[in-house]
Amino acid sequence: MTMVTLGVGDIARAADFYERLGWVRKVARHKHTCFFQLNGMMLALYPRAALMDEGREERQIEKGFAGVSLLLSLCDDEAVDKIFQVAEQAGATILRRPAKVFWGGYSAYFSDPDGYMWEVNHNPFATLDEQDKSLAQTGMASNS
User: Fold this and answer.
1) By C-alpha distance, which of 63, 73, 55 is closest to 139?
2) What's the predicted TM-score (pTM) here?
3) CA separation (Å) from 130 to 39, 76, 99?
4) What is the mean pLDDT of each successive set of 10 residues along the chain, which is 144 residues long?
């Protein structure tokens, strides 16, 4: 996978939220789309109605759980706590605070202003490569 595109209700509001998480836009401001460089892939923000039209599917419910969550894997429990706190300060809706989970990891959930659900976790059973480890230590996207 090289990019995830989120259909959002307001590009400026959504971009502002992700910038408050500490992520840096990869492309200059544009009123119709926004890109963030993440760990080996891109996150794009695009108007929800336009994205649905491009997919040529019938209009669906504008908000609601779509059976998808996005995941940010981090290097340890403390990094999860840190990025969760940053997300909360950025205006995320808190879904589940950081805690040990049944499968042996440490996990939390929040949603962005458009209702997209994000999990931040430390999975002690998953191996991150060297680039992912350095990025995961802060929970932030690459600026390069």
Assistant:
1) 73
2) 0.74
3) 11, 14, 26
4) 86 94 80 84 87 58 65 91 96 95 92 92 78 49 39
CA distance 133 to 57: 39
Strand partners, 37: 42
- What are the residue ranges of helices labelled H in 2-138? 11-20, 48-54, 77-90, 130-136
- Confidence (pLDDT) at 62: 52
One-letter amino acid of 8: V
H-assigned helices in 56-102? 77-90
Question: How far is C-alpha 128 from the chain's CA centre?
Answer: 18
For the record, the structure tokens of 101 come out as 């989970």
